[in-house]
Amino acid sequence: MLVNRSFLVLGLFLIAACSSPSPAPDTVASLEGTSWTVVSIEETAVILDTVVTAQFGADGKMSGNAGCNRYFTSYDTEGSMIHLGLAGATKMYCNEPNGVMDQESRFLEALGLVASFESSGNQLEFVNGDGEITLRFQADMNDK
């Protein structure tokens, strides 16, 4: 009788373990496959009527719009650490809106300072070696 109870308890345990609800799906946007829009550069909001973006490919390439020009670089992640290669960009000049070229320069310079990233929900932050947020992004969740 003791053996039957042991099997019964073990069976109930296995049934409970197999029927546990699965964890909620991860709602954190991943780097790859998400269109990211920069909302601030070194804690300064991007200029109204400018769009600064980033897309991360599975091939280790990052590219986007720097406000006026297209840019491209390589990236490599290990945990929350990220290394960005030297960025290249097209060479157009935009005179509107006022300050867009300075903003673009600050964005491209900030890319060179990135040491790690933090992601939560539809937010992504690039952090420099001193722990300061250099770039803050928001995911376009409609791209998923």
Can you give keywords for this protein?
20% helix; ten-stranded antiparallel sheet; disordered N terminus; Lipocalin; alpha+beta; globular; 2 helices; 144 residues
Share of residues in strands: 35-45%
Q: Describe the sheet with the most strands.
A: 10 strands, antiparallel
- Principal-axes geometry comes out as globular
Q: What is the CATH class name?
A: Mainly Beta
Could you tell me the radius of gyration in angstroms? 22 Å
Number of strands: 10
Tally the structural domains: 1
Uncertain regions: pLDDT < 50 for 5+ in a row?
A: 1-28
Counting DSSP H or I runs of 4 or more residues, the number of helices is 2
**Percentage of residues in helical conformation:** 10-25%
The mean pLDDT is 83
Q: Write the H/E string, N to C.
A: HEEEEEEEHEEE
Question: Structural class per helix/strand content?
Answer: alpha+beta
What does this structure look like?
- The protein has helices spanning 2-18, 100-111, and strands at residues 35-41, 44-45, 53-56, 61-65, 70-78, 81-84, 88-89, 114-120, 123-128, 133-140.
- With 144 residues, it is of the alpha+beta class.
- The chain has a single domain (28-143), classed as Beta Barrel (Lipocalin), CATH 2.40.128.
- Strands 1, 2, 3, 4, 5, 6, 7, 8, 9 and 10 form a ten-stranded antiparallel β-sheet that branches.
- Strand 4 and strand 5 form a beta hairpin.
- The protein is globular, with a radius of gyration of 22 Å.
- The termini are far apart.
- The relative contact order is 0.19.
- The model is unreliable at 1-28 (pLDDT under 50).
